Amino acid sequence: MSRNVVQGRNETAGQAQTLAGIGILSGLSPRELALLAAECDWRSIARGDILFSFDQGGDAGGVTFVVAGSIRLARGSGAAGRIFYTDVGAGGQFGEMAVFGVAEDGISAVAREDGLIATLSGSRFIELLSREESVSRALLCQYARLLRARETSSAAESGTTEGTGAQRVFGELLALAEPHRNGEGQECLRIARLPRHRELAARVDTTEEVVARAIAELVREGIALRDYPGLVVADEARLRALCEPG
Q1: Phi/psi class of residue 95: alpha, beta or left (left: φ > 0; alpha: ψ in -120 to 50)?
Q2: What pLDDT is attached to residue 66?
Q3: C-alpha span between 200 and 209 (Å, rounded)
Q4: Distance in angstroms (rounded) separating the CA atoms of residues 177 and 206
Q5: Which positions ≥6 away from 186 have C-beta within 8 Å?
Q6: 217-221 — which CB contacts under 8 Å span 24+ positions?
Q7: What distance in Å separates the CA atoms of residue 106 and residue 80, rounded to the nearest whole number?
Q8: Which of helix, strand or coil describes residue 180?
Q9: Residue among 63, 62, 65, 64 at smallest CA distance from 20
Q10: Which of 84, 108, 143, 238 has its CA 20 to 30 A from that of 176?
């Protein structure tokens, strides 16, 4: 994959402290952070950049730390073709599952905003985990929190109603939307090709009627604009507010 890379060994003094902002590395000494910074490939990213896509033969190339900005990971799963999205913000990381030997087929990563990332080779990351207990413990705690969040989410979804069905539609639309500039040069979000109502309903476990009403509401309120075959999100903040429990 193409990269605008700055080798860590040339920028260690200015970037070692920045790595301390990575959650799982916060317990490391300044010396260890400096060594890691020297071994990382550093890349400045712009909003909308595709970091990699397995469908196009790319790969994460190791474990990537998000120093600034945020990255959206997209994974396809299930017979209904549902796509699951995960946003990794500053201080987070991704790519370790592939390093652990867990298949990551069908995953892609796109920059949600301008920022900076640092990628450490998989072998160096494994070595780090085996030597530094603080990193291993932080990673395990991170996974435990994610597992608890998923359990809580599953329990909440078991008693869903039409209203929460609409919220799931709003959330899916927000997840599908990508950064875009309109004809006036203003930044907004846009879904290039809006899935059919039946497909959206299957993805979020609701009905086509709920999907139709939810989209119609967004257009009526001026939150979204129809842009066949897609949809433009004109007011991201209001759409995000609709995703929250009332």
Answers
A1: left
A2: 95
A3: 11
A4: 20
A5: none
A6: 217/166, 218/170, 218/173, 218/242
A7: 15
A8: strand
A9: 65
A10: 143
- Burial of residue 25 (CB within 10 Å: 0-12, 13-18, 19+) is buried
Q: Which two tokens stand for residue 94?
A: 């991704």
Structural tokens at position 143:
């996974």
- The pair of three-digit structure tokens given for residue 78, joined into one six-digit string: 């299930």
Q: Residue 121 in contact with residue 101, Cβ under 8 Å?
A: no
* Amino acid at site 119: T
The CA–CA distances, whole Å, from 199 to 96, 98, 208 equal 31, 29, 8
The Cβ of residue 200 has, within 10 Å, a number of other Cβ atoms equal to 23
Strands 82-89 and 115-120, sheet pairing:
unpaired
Look at 136 and 10; give whichever has higher pLDDT: 136
Residue 28: closest CA among 151, 116, 138, 105:
138
37-81 pLDDT, tens digit each: 999 999 999 988 888 775 554 566 799 999 999 998 887 665 455
Residue with tokens 């200015």: 14
pLDDT band at 221 (very low <50, low <70, confident <90, very high): very high
